[in-house]
Amino acid sequence: MIPLEKTTQTTPRDIVITNAVFTHGNLEAWMNIIQSYQRLHPEHQVVILYEGEEVNNLMSFFKLEKSPNRQGFQLVVNAPDGHRKDVPKLYRLLVDGAGPNYERYLGKEVFKVLNLF
What we know:
It contains 2 helices and 5 strands, in the order ββαβββα. The chain is an alpha+beta fold. It has a single domain, classed as Histidine-containing Protein, Chain: A, CATH 3.30.1340. Strands 1, 2, 3, 4 and 5 form a 5-stranded antiparallel β-sheet that branches. α1 packs antiparallel against α2. The mean pLDDT is 88.
């Protein structure tokens, strides 16, 4: 008998913004990184938290009149299949995308997904 795997949720991990100015490009990089992860793990739910609340639309941060809290973001992944081996890489890439080198995650063709995982 094969044991059923249960849904596992990762512990929230801080994504500290290291870019001097948190830009639209950083958020676009995050969206491309998450899209690449979910292509490989479509059953996983990638959740970005901001000050403890789930962010439903990353682009909504550009509607804020003030800069976001540089230490207010966290990553949580819900993995119904229990396979979390790519979560550390996802985290590393999101941290990199929050920094000044985010542009490496922007260069892609329209309707194409980056091949990061």
